Amino acid sequence: MSLRSRLSIAVAAGALAVTALATPAVAGDEPDDPRGDWGQNQTQNQTQNQSQNQSQGQNQNHNPRLSRGVVTASSLALRSAPNRGGQIIRWADRGEVVSIFCKTNGQSIQGNRQWYLLTDGTWAWGSARYIRTIGPAPRWC
What we know:
about 140 residues; five-stranded antiparallel β-sheet
């Protein structure tokens, strides 16, 4: 990994650490969480409403430097680092449209090592295995 990549990741991790201190704990982030790592207990109505609300707001204010993606997992844990050991910052539901700042290689999730740094209110990492990109591919961090 190049020095530039390491520096980018270190800067992003620092920003995430500061954000994590100011963000309240998320329910269900304990190891014995019945939803598991990717959670399965979200209702379809909540998912559809959140997806519609977010996609409408993003279409109006989308930054052309950012890529976009759609969450394909039932519920995706967004983390403080590009691995499953990172603290959960929040959960994203199926169909949610997310803004992708950049991508990097991290822990392999079902054979996919890429992770996206998302910029939706908090900076958090999501596995590319569960995010389908819309439009141009994200740039490397």
